[in-house]
Amino acid sequence: MYKVMENGGGKILGLSLYIFIPCIVLILIVALAGALPDNMIGSLGFLMMISAVVGLIGKKLPIWNKYFGGGAMLTFMVGSGLFTYKLLPADVFDNVSTFLNKDGFLDLFITILIVGSVLSLDRNQILKAFGGFFPAIIGGVVVAFVFCMGAAALVGIKPITALINIASPIVADGNGGGAIPMSKIWAQATGKNSTIWYTPAFAVLTIANILSVILSSLVSRFGEKYPKYSGHGQLLKIKDKSAGQTEKFDAGVLDIAASFLVVLFIYIIGQFYADKISFVNRGNMGFKIHAFAFMVIFVIVLNLINVIPKEIRAGADKLQKLSSKYFLFSVMFAIGMGTDLMNIVKVFTIPNIFVIISTVLGALIGAVLVGRCFGLYPVESGITAGLCMTGMGGSGDILILSSSNRMNLMPFAQITSRIGGSMVLIVFSMLLGLGQ
Protein backbone atom coordinates (compact mmCIF):
# COMPACT_ATOMS: atom_id res chain seq x y z
CA MET A 1 0.00 0.00 0.00
CA TYR A 2 2.88 2.33 0.77
CA LYS A 3 6.21 2.30 -1.06
CA VAL A 4 9.26 4.46 -0.34
CA MET A 5 10.91 5.64 -3.53
CA GLU A 6 14.56 6.33 -4.23
CA ASN A 7 14.05 10.09 -4.42
CA GLY A 8 12.80 10.19 -0.83
CA GLY A 9 9.14 10.51 -1.81
CA GLY A 10 6.52 7.83 -1.46
CA LYS A 11 3.33 6.31 -2.76
CA ILE A 12 0.02 5.53 -1.10
CA LEU A 13 -2.37 3.22 -2.94
CA GLY A 14 -0.01 3.49 -5.92
CA LEU A 15 -0.33 7.28 -6.12
CA SER A 16 2.61 9.63 -5.64
CA LEU A 17 2.20 11.92 -2.66
CA TYR A 18 1.94 15.05 -4.80
CA ILE A 19 -1.16 13.45 -6.36
CA PHE A 20 -2.54 11.68 -3.30
CA ILE A 21 -2.40 14.62 -0.88
CA PRO A 22 -4.53 17.02 -3.02
CA CYS A 23 -6.98 14.15 -3.65
CA ILE A 24 -7.46 13.36 0.03
CA VAL A 25 -7.80 17.03 0.93
CA LEU A 26 -10.56 17.44 -1.66
CA ILE A 27 -12.27 14.24 -0.47
CA LEU A 28 -12.28 15.57 3.10
CA ILE A 29 -13.70 18.92 1.99
CA VAL A 30 -16.50 17.19 0.08
CA ALA A 31 -17.23 14.86 3.02
CA LEU A 32 -17.29 17.68 5.59
CA ALA A 33 -19.64 19.58 3.30
CA GLY A 34 -21.96 16.56 3.32
CA ALA A 35 -21.72 16.32 -0.47
CA LEU A 36 -20.32 12.81 -1.00
CA PRO A 37 -22.21 10.92 -3.73
CA ASP A 38 -24.95 8.87 -2.12
CA ASN A 39 -23.79 5.57 -3.63
CA MET A 40 -21.05 2.94 -3.38
CA ILE A 41 -18.61 5.07 -5.39
CA GLY A 42 -18.73 7.94 -2.94
CA SER A 43 -18.49 5.65 0.08
CA LEU A 44 -15.66 3.48 -1.25
CA GLY A 45 -13.65 6.44 -2.51
CA PHE A 46 -13.88 8.15 0.88
CA LEU A 47 -13.08 4.95 2.81
CA MET A 48 -10.06 3.98 0.70
CA MET A 49 -8.50 7.43 0.78
CA ILE A 50 -8.85 8.09 4.51
CA SER A 51 -8.19 4.55 5.73
CA ALA A 52 -5.02 4.27 3.65
CA VAL A 53 -3.41 7.13 5.59
CA VAL A 54 -4.66 5.98 9.00
CA GLY A 55 -3.66 2.38 8.27
CA LEU A 56 -0.18 3.47 7.22
CA ILE A 57 0.28 5.30 10.49
CA GLY A 58 -0.88 2.23 12.41
CA LYS A 59 1.59 0.02 10.53
CA LYS A 60 4.50 2.36 11.30
CA LEU A 61 3.84 3.15 14.98
CA PRO A 62 6.33 1.28 17.19
CA ILE A 63 4.84 -1.18 19.68
CA TRP A 64 1.33 -0.46 18.37
CA ASN A 65 2.11 -2.18 15.07
CA LYS A 66 3.30 -5.35 16.83
CA TYR A 67 1.02 -5.73 19.80
CA PHE A 68 -2.13 -3.66 19.30
CA GLY A 69 -3.45 -4.66 15.88
CA GLY A 70 -1.40 -2.30 13.69
CA GLY A 71 -3.14 -0.49 10.86
CA ALA A 72 -6.36 -2.49 11.08
CA MET A 73 -6.91 -1.63 14.73
CA LEU A 74 -6.06 2.05 14.26
CA THR A 75 -8.42 2.48 11.29
CA PHE A 76 -11.18 0.89 13.35
CA MET A 77 -10.46 3.12 16.34
CA VAL A 78 -10.30 6.32 14.26
CA GLY A 79 -13.53 5.44 12.46
CA SER A 80 -15.14 4.70 15.79
CA GLY A 81 -13.88 7.99 17.20
CA LEU A 82 -15.41 9.89 14.29
CA PHE A 83 -18.72 8.15 14.92
CA THR A 84 -18.66 8.49 18.71
CA TYR A 85 -18.00 12.23 18.65
CA LYS A 86 -20.00 12.91 15.46
CA LEU A 87 -17.10 14.61 13.65
CA LEU A 88 -18.64 14.08 10.20
CA PRO A 89 -22.09 14.88 8.79
CA ALA A 90 -24.73 12.24 9.54
CA ASP A 91 -25.18 11.52 5.82
CA VAL A 92 -21.60 10.24 5.59
CA PHE A 93 -22.18 7.68 8.33
CA ASP A 94 -25.50 6.62 6.79
CA ASN A 95 -23.97 6.20 3.31
CA VAL A 96 -21.07 4.13 4.62
CA SER A 97 -23.41 1.92 6.65
CA THR A 98 -25.61 1.30 3.60
CA PHE A 99 -22.61 0.50 1.42
CA LEU A 100 -21.12 -1.91 3.95
CA ASN A 101 -24.26 -3.77 4.94
CA LYS A 102 -27.29 -3.27 2.69
CA ASP A 103 -25.27 -3.06 -0.54
CA GLY A 104 -23.35 -6.20 0.49
CA PHE A 105 -19.72 -5.06 0.34
CA LEU A 106 -18.98 -6.66 3.71
CA ASP A 107 -20.49 -9.97 2.56
CA LEU A 108 -18.43 -9.86 -0.62
CA PHE A 109 -15.23 -9.16 1.32
CA ILE A 110 -15.87 -12.02 3.73
CA THR A 111 -16.69 -14.49 0.94
CA ILE A 112 -13.49 -13.60 -0.92
CA LEU A 113 -11.49 -14.30 2.25
CA ILE A 114 -13.22 -17.62 2.89
CA VAL A 115 -12.88 -18.95 -0.66
CA GLY A 116 -9.34 -17.69 -1.21
CA SER A 117 -8.07 -18.92 2.16
CA VAL A 118 -9.38 -22.47 1.81
CA LEU A 119 -8.53 -22.92 -1.89
CA SER A 120 -4.98 -21.68 -1.27
CA LEU A 121 -4.32 -24.74 0.90
CA ASP A 122 -2.98 -27.81 -0.85
CA ARG A 123 -5.19 -30.91 -0.68
CA ASN A 124 -2.41 -32.77 1.11
CA GLN A 125 -2.39 -30.11 3.83
CA ILE A 126 -6.11 -30.52 4.36
CA LEU A 127 -5.79 -34.32 4.54
CA LYS A 128 -2.98 -33.99 7.10
CA ALA A 129 -5.24 -31.73 9.13
CA PHE A 130 -7.62 -34.63 9.57
CA GLY A 131 -4.76 -36.75 10.86
CA GLY A 132 -2.85 -35.89 14.01
CA PHE A 133 -2.94 -32.12 13.68
CA PHE A 134 -6.68 -31.57 13.36
CA PRO A 135 -7.43 -33.45 16.61
CA ALA A 136 -4.94 -31.14 18.32
CA ILE A 137 -6.91 -28.14 17.05
CA ILE A 138 -10.15 -29.67 18.33
CA GLY A 139 -8.48 -30.36 21.67
CA GLY A 140 -7.44 -26.73 21.88
CA VAL A 141 -10.97 -25.50 21.16
CA VAL A 142 -12.60 -27.89 23.64
CA VAL A 143 -10.24 -27.13 26.53
CA ALA A 144 -10.38 -23.40 25.73
CA PHE A 145 -14.17 -23.57 26.03
CA VAL A 146 -13.95 -25.58 29.28
CA PHE A 147 -11.46 -23.14 30.82
CA CYS A 148 -13.60 -20.22 29.65
CA MET A 149 -16.74 -21.63 31.29
CA GLY A 150 -14.86 -22.42 34.50
CA ALA A 151 -13.30 -18.96 34.71
CA ALA A 152 -16.63 -17.32 33.90
CA ALA A 153 -18.37 -19.25 36.68
CA LEU A 154 -15.70 -18.12 39.15
CA VAL A 155 -16.16 -14.42 38.36
CA GLY A 156 -19.94 -14.49 38.10
CA ILE A 157 -20.37 -14.46 34.30
CA LYS A 158 -22.91 -16.82 32.74
CA PRO A 159 -20.83 -19.57 31.03
CA ILE A 160 -22.86 -19.60 27.77
CA THR A 161 -22.50 -15.80 27.57
CA ALA A 162 -18.74 -16.08 28.02
CA LEU A 163 -18.55 -18.70 25.27
CA ILE A 164 -20.44 -16.46 22.84
CA ASN A 165 -18.78 -13.14 23.66
CA ILE A 166 -15.24 -14.18 24.62
CA ALA A 167 -14.18 -17.73 23.74
CA SER A 168 -15.75 -17.92 20.27
CA PRO A 169 -14.15 -14.77 18.79
CA ILE A 170 -10.80 -15.73 20.34
CA VAL A 171 -10.60 -19.22 18.80
CA ALA A 172 -12.07 -18.25 15.42
CA ASP A 173 -10.07 -17.09 12.38
CA GLY A 174 -9.02 -13.70 13.67
CA ASN A 175 -10.97 -10.72 12.40
CA GLY A 176 -11.85 -11.08 8.71
CA GLY A 177 -12.68 -14.78 8.81
CA GLY A 178 -13.86 -14.87 12.42
CA ALA A 179 -15.15 -11.82 14.26
CA ILE A 180 -16.64 -10.05 11.23
CA PRO A 181 -18.75 -12.99 9.95
CA MET A 182 -19.59 -13.88 13.56
CA SER A 183 -21.00 -10.39 14.02
CA LYS A 184 -23.24 -10.98 11.00
CA ILE A 185 -24.36 -14.33 12.43
CA TRP A 186 -25.05 -12.70 15.79
CA ALA A 187 -27.05 -9.91 14.13
CA GLN A 188 -29.16 -12.43 12.22
CA ALA A 189 -29.85 -14.46 15.36
CA THR A 190 -30.68 -11.50 17.61
CA GLY A 191 -32.13 -8.97 15.18
CA LYS A 192 -29.77 -6.31 16.56
CA ASN A 193 -27.00 -4.23 14.96
CA SER A 194 -23.87 -6.34 14.42
CA THR A 195 -21.59 -3.66 15.88
CA ILE A 196 -23.08 -4.22 19.34
CA TRP A 197 -21.40 -7.65 19.44
CA TYR A 198 -18.45 -6.85 17.17
CA THR A 199 -17.02 -3.90 19.10
CA PRO A 200 -16.23 -5.73 22.37
CA ALA A 201 -15.33 -8.89 20.42
CA PHE A 202 -12.62 -7.01 18.51
CA ALA A 203 -11.25 -5.65 21.79
CA VAL A 204 -11.21 -9.22 23.17
CA LEU A 205 -9.30 -10.35 20.07
CA THR A 206 -6.68 -7.66 20.58
CA ILE A 207 -6.06 -8.66 24.21
CA ALA A 208 -5.91 -12.37 23.31
CA ASN A 209 -3.48 -11.66 20.45
CA ILE A 210 -1.04 -9.85 22.76
CA LEU A 211 -1.21 -12.67 25.30
CA SER A 212 -0.69 -15.32 22.57
CA VAL A 213 2.49 -13.63 21.33
CA ILE A 214 3.92 -13.43 24.85
CA LEU A 215 3.06 -17.06 25.62
CA SER A 216 4.58 -18.22 22.34
CA SER A 217 7.93 -16.79 23.36
CA LEU A 218 7.67 -18.35 26.82
CA VAL A 219 6.75 -21.77 25.39
CA SER A 220 9.72 -21.59 23.02
CA ARG A 221 12.05 -20.87 25.94
CA PHE A 222 10.52 -23.81 27.81
CA GLY A 223 11.45 -26.01 24.83
CA GLU A 224 15.02 -24.76 24.98
CA LYS A 225 15.25 -25.63 28.67
CA TYR A 226 13.55 -29.02 28.24
CA PRO A 227 14.60 -30.24 24.75
CA LYS A 228 12.67 -33.52 24.92
CA TYR A 229 9.40 -31.60 24.62
CA SER A 230 10.51 -29.62 21.57
CA GLY A 231 10.98 -30.58 17.94
CA HIS A 232 13.05 -27.40 17.44
CA GLY A 233 10.80 -26.32 14.61
CA GLN A 234 9.68 -29.82 13.58
CA LEU A 235 6.03 -30.53 14.37
CA LEU A 236 5.77 -34.27 13.64
CA LYS A 237 7.95 -36.76 15.42
CA ILE A 238 7.99 -38.74 12.15
CA LYS A 239 9.73 -36.33 9.86
CA ASP A 240 7.92 -35.49 6.66
CA LYS A 241 9.80 -33.00 4.51
CA SER A 242 6.87 -32.66 2.14
CA ALA A 243 4.52 -31.42 4.89
CA GLY A 244 3.09 -28.04 4.07
CA GLN A 245 4.38 -27.87 0.49
CA THR A 246 1.94 -26.53 -2.06
CA GLU A 247 2.04 -26.39 -5.82
CA LYS A 248 3.09 -22.96 -7.04
CA PHE A 249 1.27 -21.28 -9.91
CA ASP A 250 1.46 -17.67 -11.02
CA ALA A 251 -2.14 -16.60 -11.55
CA GLY A 252 -2.91 -14.17 -14.35
CA VAL A 253 -5.68 -11.60 -14.73
CA LEU A 254 -8.04 -14.16 -16.32
CA ASP A 255 -7.43 -16.59 -13.46
CA ILE A 256 -8.30 -13.92 -10.91
CA ALA A 257 -11.45 -13.03 -12.85
CA ALA A 258 -12.45 -16.71 -12.96
CA SER A 259 -11.86 -17.07 -9.23
CA PHE A 260 -14.09 -14.04 -8.65
CA LEU A 261 -16.88 -15.88 -10.46
CA VAL A 262 -16.30 -18.84 -8.13
CA VAL A 263 -16.58 -16.47 -5.15
CA LEU A 264 -19.91 -15.14 -6.42
CA PHE A 265 -21.13 -18.69 -7.12
CA ILE A 266 -20.19 -19.88 -3.62
CA TYR A 267 -21.96 -16.91 -2.03
CA ILE A 268 -25.18 -17.43 -4.01
CA ILE A 269 -25.24 -21.19 -3.43
CA GLY A 270 -24.36 -20.78 0.25
CA GLN A 271 -27.17 -18.32 0.79
CA PHE A 272 -29.62 -20.46 -1.17
CA TYR A 273 -28.70 -23.60 0.77
CA ALA A 274 -28.95 -21.84 4.13
CA ASP A 275 -32.32 -20.24 3.32
CA LYS A 276 -34.09 -22.91 1.26
CA ILE A 277 -32.50 -26.32 1.74
CA SER A 278 -30.77 -26.71 5.11
CA PHE A 279 -32.90 -28.98 7.31
CA VAL A 280 -31.29 -27.34 10.35
CA ASN A 281 -32.33 -23.83 9.37
CA ARG A 282 -35.74 -24.83 8.07
CA GLY A 283 -36.51 -27.09 11.00
CA ASN A 284 -37.45 -26.11 14.52
CA MET A 285 -34.12 -27.01 16.13
CA GLY A 286 -33.62 -23.94 18.27
CA PHE A 287 -30.69 -22.57 16.30
CA LYS A 288 -29.62 -21.74 12.76
CA ILE A 289 -26.34 -22.13 10.90
CA HIS A 290 -25.24 -19.05 9.00
CA ALA A 291 -24.61 -19.19 5.26
CA PHE A 292 -20.93 -18.36 5.81
CA ALA A 293 -20.49 -21.65 7.67
CA PHE A 294 -22.00 -23.57 4.75
CA MET A 295 -19.72 -21.70 2.36
CA VAL A 296 -16.70 -22.90 4.32
CA ILE A 297 -17.87 -26.51 4.10
CA PHE A 298 -18.63 -26.25 0.37
CA VAL A 299 -15.19 -24.80 -0.43
CA ILE A 300 -13.39 -27.45 1.63
CA VAL A 301 -15.28 -30.19 -0.21
CA LEU A 302 -14.51 -28.62 -3.60
CA ASN A 303 -10.84 -28.48 -2.69
CA LEU A 304 -10.72 -32.06 -1.42
CA ILE A 305 -12.41 -33.56 -4.49
CA ASN A 306 -10.03 -31.51 -6.63
CA VAL A 307 -12.61 -30.06 -9.07
CA ILE A 308 -11.18 -26.53 -8.96
CA PRO A 309 -8.30 -26.13 -11.46
CA LYS A 310 -4.98 -25.06 -9.99
CA GLU A 311 -4.95 -21.79 -11.91
CA ILE A 312 -8.33 -20.77 -10.45
CA ARG A 313 -7.21 -21.78 -6.95
CA ALA A 314 -4.13 -19.63 -7.44
CA GLY A 315 -6.35 -16.82 -8.69
CA ALA A 316 -8.56 -17.11 -5.60
CA ASP A 317 -5.48 -16.95 -3.39
CA LYS A 318 -4.23 -13.82 -5.15
CA LEU A 319 -7.71 -12.28 -5.05
CA GLN A 320 -8.03 -12.71 -1.30
CA LYS A 321 -4.50 -11.35 -0.77
CA LEU A 322 -5.27 -8.31 -2.92
CA SER A 323 -8.55 -7.76 -1.08
CA SER A 324 -6.88 -8.09 2.30
CA LYS A 325 -4.14 -5.67 1.27
CA TYR A 326 -6.24 -2.97 -0.35
CA PHE A 327 -9.71 -3.26 1.21
CA LEU A 328 -9.11 -4.44 4.79
CA PHE A 329 -8.42 -0.93 6.08
CA SER A 330 -11.52 0.34 4.27
CA VAL A 331 -13.66 -2.37 5.84
CA MET A 332 -12.23 -1.74 9.31
CA PHE A 333 -12.73 2.00 8.94
CA ALA A 334 -16.32 1.49 7.80
CA ILE A 335 -17.08 -0.86 10.70
CA GLY A 336 -15.61 1.70 13.07
CA MET A 337 -17.85 4.39 11.59
CA GLY A 338 -20.84 2.47 12.92
CA THR A 339 -19.37 1.75 16.35
CA ASP A 340 -19.55 3.65 19.62
CA LEU A 341 -16.02 3.82 21.01
CA MET A 342 -17.31 3.81 24.57
CA ASN A 343 -18.51 0.22 24.16
CA ILE A 344 -14.88 -0.95 23.99
CA VAL A 345 -14.15 0.43 27.44
CA LYS A 346 -16.72 -1.97 28.90
CA VAL A 347 -14.54 -4.96 27.94
CA PHE A 348 -11.57 -3.92 30.06
CA THR A 349 -12.78 -5.29 33.36
CA ILE A 350 -10.96 -7.66 35.70
CA PRO A 351 -13.52 -10.50 35.20
CA ASN A 352 -13.27 -10.25 31.40
CA ILE A 353 -9.47 -10.17 31.44
CA PHE A 354 -9.44 -13.24 33.70
CA VAL A 355 -11.74 -15.15 31.33
CA ILE A 356 -9.66 -14.12 28.29
CA ILE A 357 -6.41 -15.33 29.90
CA SER A 358 -8.07 -18.60 30.91
CA THR A 359 -9.37 -19.16 27.38
CA VAL A 360 -5.96 -18.65 25.76
CA LEU A 361 -4.26 -20.93 28.29
CA GLY A 362 -6.95 -23.54 27.66
CA ALA A 363 -6.26 -23.50 23.92
CA LEU A 364 -2.54 -23.94 24.55
CA ILE A 365 -2.94 -26.78 27.07
CA GLY A 366 -5.58 -28.61 25.02
CA ALA A 367 -3.46 -28.53 21.86
CA VAL A 368 -0.41 -29.79 23.77
CA LEU A 369 -2.22 -32.70 25.44
CA VAL A 370 -4.08 -33.95 22.37
CA GLY A 371 -1.20 -33.27 19.99
CA ARG A 372 1.15 -35.38 22.10
CA CYS A 373 -1.29 -38.31 21.89
CA PHE A 374 -1.06 -38.10 18.08
CA GLY A 375 2.71 -37.92 17.82
CA LEU A 376 3.26 -34.16 17.76
CA TYR A 377 5.93 -32.35 19.72
CA PRO A 378 4.27 -30.50 22.64
CA VAL A 379 6.00 -27.16 22.05
CA GLU A 380 5.23 -27.03 18.34
CA SER A 381 1.72 -28.40 18.80
CA GLY A 382 0.95 -25.86 21.50
CA ILE A 383 2.19 -22.97 19.40
CA THR A 384 0.63 -23.91 16.04
CA ALA A 385 -2.60 -25.71 17.00
CA GLY A 386 -3.15 -23.71 20.20
CA LEU A 387 -1.74 -20.19 20.25
CA CYS A 388 -2.10 -19.59 16.51
CA MET A 389 -5.79 -20.29 17.07
CA THR A 390 -6.04 -17.50 19.64
CA GLY A 391 -4.02 -14.97 17.64
CA MET A 392 -5.44 -12.37 15.30
CA GLY A 393 -5.65 -14.31 12.04
CA GLY A 394 -2.77 -14.22 9.56
CA SER A 395 -1.01 -11.25 11.15
CA GLY A 396 -1.29 -12.97 14.51
CA ASP A 397 0.28 -16.14 13.08
CA ILE A 398 3.27 -14.14 11.89
CA LEU A 399 3.78 -12.50 15.28
CA ILE A 400 3.34 -15.77 17.18
CA LEU A 401 5.65 -17.84 14.98
CA SER A 402 8.30 -15.12 14.71
CA SER A 403 8.37 -14.64 18.49
CA SER A 404 9.06 -18.38 18.87
CA ASN A 405 11.47 -18.62 15.89
CA ARG A 406 9.26 -21.14 14.09
CA MET A 407 8.24 -19.38 10.89
CA ASN A 408 8.73 -22.67 9.01
CA LEU A 409 5.52 -23.90 10.62
CA MET A 410 3.39 -21.28 8.86
CA PRO A 411 1.45 -23.89 6.76
CA PHE A 412 0.22 -25.56 9.95
CA ALA A 413 -0.59 -22.21 11.51
CA GLN A 414 -2.68 -21.43 8.45
CA ILE A 415 -4.56 -24.72 8.83
CA THR A 416 -5.36 -23.72 12.41
CA SER A 417 -6.46 -20.20 11.49
CA ARG A 418 -8.32 -21.00 8.28
CA ILE A 419 -9.88 -24.44 8.67
CA GLY A 420 -10.03 -24.79 12.44
CA GLY A 421 -11.09 -21.20 12.93
CA SER A 422 -13.70 -21.34 10.20
CA MET A 423 -15.35 -24.39 11.74
CA VAL A 424 -15.94 -22.36 14.90
CA LEU A 425 -18.52 -20.42 12.87
CA ILE A 426 -20.72 -23.51 12.97
CA VAL A 427 -20.23 -23.97 16.70
CA PHE A 428 -20.93 -20.27 17.22
CA SER A 429 -24.23 -20.54 15.36
CA MET A 430 -25.27 -23.41 17.63
CA LEU A 431 -24.20 -21.54 20.77
CA LEU A 432 -26.34 -18.58 19.80
CA GLY A 433 -29.36 -20.84 19.57
CA LEU A 434 -28.66 -22.30 23.00
CA GLY A 435 -27.91 -18.93 24.55
CA GLN A 436 -31.17 -17.22 23.58
Automatic annotation (TrEMBL):
The keyword NAD does not apply. Keywords: Membrane, Symport, Transmembrane, Transmembrane helix, Transport. The chain crosses the membrane at residues 12-34, 40-58, 67-85, 105-121, 133-157, 196-219, 251-273, 285-305, 326-344, 350-370, 382-403, 415-434. InterPro entries: 2-OHcarboxylate_transport. GO terms for molecular function: organic anion transmembrane transporter activity; symporter activity. GO terms for cellular component: plasma membrane. It comes from the Bacteria. Pfam families: 2HCT. Belongs to the 2-hydroxycarboxylate transporter (2-HCT) (TC 2.A.24) family. PANTHER family: CITRATE-SODIUM SYMPORTER (PTHR40033:SF1), NA(+)-MALATE SYMPORTER (PTHR40033). This is Citrate-sodium symporter. The lineage of its organism: Bacteria, Bacillati, Bacillota, Clostridia, Eubacteriales.
